[in-house]
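Good morning C.,

I know you're traveling, so I'll keep this short. The sequence:
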Amino acid sequence: MQLLFEIEDVFDIGGRGCVLVPGVPYQLGQNVKRCAQLLIIAPAGEETRTSIQGFEMINRGRPMNHAPFSVPRSVKKESLPVGSKVYLLDASDV
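The tokens, ready to paste straight into the viewer:
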């Protein structure tokens, strides 16, 4: 299990799902693909297991070093508070 990032913002896009920002760091050193399994741990300790639905293009008005991505529509914005830690799971964690 590898820490990817801490959630700074979440955008709920109707019909598509929530987009997590900042996203996967470009300098991670390994390829992270669609359907990769994730564990999100909220500041209060709640855990959500989900996956990457797709990578998104977001213009934040400045260069980005991360790739924001969406999670399935079943994951609601309320379960993704700012400050949550997003971990990439490997085969032994699933």
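Safe travels,
E.
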